[in-house]
Amino acid sequence: MAGNKENQDVVAAILKDHRTMEDLFRRMRSVEADRAAALKEFSALLIAHGEAEETEVYGALKRFKKVDNEEVDHGTEEHEEGNKALLALLEVDDIGSDEWDERLEDLVEAVTHHLDEEERTILNDARESVPDERRAELGDAFLKERARQLASDCGSVENVREVVHG
Question: Does the reported pTM lie above 0.90?
Answer without folding.
Answer: yes
